[in-house]
Design brief:
This protein has helices at 15-26, 56-59, 97-105, 128-133, 172-183, 208-214, 239-243, and strands at 3-9, 31-33, 42-49, 64-72, 74-76, 85-88, 109-113, 122-123, 126-127, 143-155, 159-166, 187-197, 200-201, 230-234, 248-249, 260-264, 267-275, 280-286. By secondary structure, the chain is an alpha+beta fold. The strands form four sheets. Strands 1, 2, 3, 4, 7, 10, 11, 12 and 13 form a nine-stranded mixed sheet that branches. Strands 14-16-17-18-15 form a five-stranded mixed sheet. Strands 5-6 form a two-stranded antiparallel ribbon.
């Protein structure tokens, strides 16, 4: 039993809780997830089962789509409405749509942001949130992320509804706070829905109740959800060599992605990498032994 699941995580449940639920339904221990969602958030959570768990790291490299509600007038220590209020503003002038669009335009393209300290980001090997709980001060370094699209879907005096396509590592809580700062008003994230992770979409996601009804039938072929990688058809005579970790000489091959989905006679073997200097295909992760 191996493959991916496209799970719709409900609010109020941690990503780890979802993994535990899948383990009970499928009666297997080898289960993992890609891209942690905060307990209060909802949306797409890719889950890997069996040997597909070895491919989780490649799912985490993919772009994502989020829809978020921003509450204006308060800022919290966590960046969302579950944290302690650290700033509050009662009144501010109404924003014209053009002013809102101008503020959002500042956060498209390549930007720098500082992830919230209340997060699972690691500082010297320890999660920032764990350090905070231990009473230690935490300084999270800023990072560069890519915002491909940032749209304003709706707005009222104290609420904004945005949707964004972004790179891995983007913290939407930080984005919401930064948008508030650009407007000159404290802001925090009131709700988050992850609509897409790579090829996983919310429209095709299964609820946990639906998963309990269909069980292992819900498993998806892992390679179908790695479309961001170029595919490579290996000669069938080299299948055993690839699966045993041996390289294969390949001349005049032009690679478009860092990693390759490798097949032999239509069978998915795993992930490879092409060394252009040596003109060799190298196994990275072997799945189809």
């Amino acid at each position: 039993m191996s493959g991916f699941l496209n799970i719709l995580k409900p609010p109020g449940m941690s990503s780890h809780d979802v993994v535990g639920y899948v383990r009970r339904v499928l009666q297997t221990k080898k289960v993992g997830h890609a891209g942690t969602l905060d307990p209060a958030a909802a949306g797409v959570l890719p889950v890997a089962v069996g040997t597909a768990t070895r491919l989780i790291e490649y799912l985490e490299l993919t772009d994502k789509t989020y829809r978020a509600e921003i509450q204006l007038g308060i800022a919290t220590d966590s960046g969302d409405d579950t944290g302690k209020v650290r700033a509050r503003q009662e009144n501010w002038p109404a924003f014209a749509p053009s002013a809102l669009q101008a503020a959002l335009a500042q956060f498209t393209g390549r930007i720098r942001q500082t992830p919230p300290a209340h997060s699972a980001i690691k500082i010297n090997g320890q999660r920032a949130c764990d350090l905070l709980r231990a009473g230690k001060s935490v300084e999270v370094p800023s990072r560069e992320v890519m915002i491909y699209r940032l749209d304003l879907l709706a707005h009222s005096h104290d609420r904004l509804l945005i949707e964004t396509d972004c790179s891995k590592g983007t913290y939407i809580r930080s984005l919401c706070q930064d948008i508030g700062e650009a407007l000159g008003v404290p802001a925090t994230m009131a709700f988050l829905l992850r609509r897409r992770v790579g090829d996983f979409s919310v429209e095709k996601a299964l609820t946990l109740e639906e998963l309990s009804q269909v069980g292992a039938e819900a498993l998806l072929p892992a390679d179908d959800y790695l479309s961001g990688m170029q595919s490579f058809d290996l000669h069938p005579k080299r299948e055993k060599a690839f699966c045993n970790g041996l390289s294969t000489g390949v001349r005049n091959f032009r690679t478009e992605t860092d990693f390759l989905r490798v097949y032999a006679a239509g069978k998915f073997l795993g992930i490879g990498r092409y060394d252009a200097e040596k003109e060799e295909l190298l196994p990275v992760k072997v799945i189809g032994r």
